[in-house]
């Protein structure tokens, strides 16, 4: 399996995918240590035939390690566990909807939490810190129009 990243990426954290280049199927996960460390853990488990995701392990056994690429999907700069969980869930759900996920579940289910509530909470915190709409969009890596929509929702709720 090839690591599709730079030396700088090796120390970053966030969401990654292991892609089968023959089929387009992917396994999506998160790491709070480093992408490089998680890459090595997956590579070792797959080579030894003991990866916990049986769908991914079977594909590895069939297609061989050379068919797989470990790629970075999103670097996460905050230490907030909910950010990791939300983005992992988001990308797994997208892959499942397209029928290309090795993942058996959509990741960490955020009980009682919907997407707008999640982002409203983030935006409210940044507004309280005195941030403007442009900086909020950049910090959260969200489209400006969506941040403006969330800010209107916050104003209408108060």
What descriptive keywords fit this protein?
158 residues; alpha+beta; GIY-YIG endonuclease; 2 domains; 4-stranded mixed beta sheet; 7 helices; 4 strands; 51% helix; elongated
Low-confidence stretches: none
Largest sheet: 4 strands, mixed
Strand content is 15-25%
Separate helix tally: 7
Oligomeric grouping of the chains: single chain
- Provide the CATH architecture of the largest domain: 3-Layer(aba) Sandwich
Helix content: 40-55%
What's the pLDDT, averaged over the residues?
87
Q: What general form does the structure show?
A: elongated
Question: Describe it for me?
Answer:
This protein is an alpha+beta fold. It folds into two domains: 96 residues, 3-Layer(aba) Sandwich (GIY-YIG endonuclease); 43 residues. The chain is built from seven helices and four strands. It has a four-stranded mixed beta sheet with strand order 1-4-2-3. A hairpin with a 5-residue loop joins β2 and β3. α5 crosses α7 and α6 crosses α7. It is elongated. It starts with a strand and ends with a helix. The model has no long low-confidence stretch (mean pLDDT 87).
